[in-house]
Design goal:
With 165 residues, this protein is of the alpha/beta class. It contains two helices and eight strands, in the order H-H-E-E-E-E-E-E-E-E. Helix content is 30%, strand content 25%. The longest helix has 32 residues.
């Protein structure tokens, strides 16, 4: 990853900046001008530290924890057809609500060009990241209403699966 290396280079340049010997300059005769050299170093240090903080923040926010979401299983060709299907298209779940009986299976298919997830708000199921064309199925055994969303795109509207007895 390049981010930590960039931070190290910035810090090394800051260290070199402060370890460098003061050049002999005419400003030594005028203390006010020499004070401007010191202020310039503080300014450069401040800018460098701000850049380092931004780089670290971007690196921390962009890290993905591959252990947090399971990878979807490959579809079993001998598996029965799902009782309901949901298509993820144009950053929306379609249909937004499906109803199945207890023991029924819902299958989600990502028909969008962007990756998506189908993740229950109460952690009953999580598809993991579905690439374009990816599929995920879940068998609902307990009656109730399951509200789910896309972890990747928080602006997408929630959708529901209603499980009846």
């Amino acid at each position: 990853m390049q981010y930590p290396r960039a931070v190290l280079l910035i810090m090394l340049n800051i260290k070199k900046l402060f370890e460098a010997k003061q050049p002999s300059c005419k400003c030594r005769r005028n203390p006010n001008k020499h004070l401007n050299h010191f202020n310039m170093k503080k300014y450069i240090l401040g800018i460098s530290l701000m850049i380092a903080v931004v780089v670290v923040a971007v690196a921390a926010c962009s890290k993905s924890d591959s252990n947090s979401t399971p990878t979807p299983t490959k579809p079993d060709p001998t598996a029965p057809k799902p009782d309901a299907t949901v298509s993820i298209t144009d950053f929306a779940f379609s249909p937004a609500s499906v109803t199945v009986k207890a023991g029924g299976t819902v299958q989600w298919t990502n028909a969008d060009s962007a990756p998506h997830t189908a993740t229950d708000l109460n952690s009953a199921f999580n598809s993991g990241t579905l690439a374009q064309g990816g599929k995920f199925s879940f068998k609902f055994t307990t009656p109730g209403t399951y509200t789910y969303h896309c972890l990747v795109h928080s602006m997408m509207a929630n959708a529901t699966v209603v499980v009846t007895e």
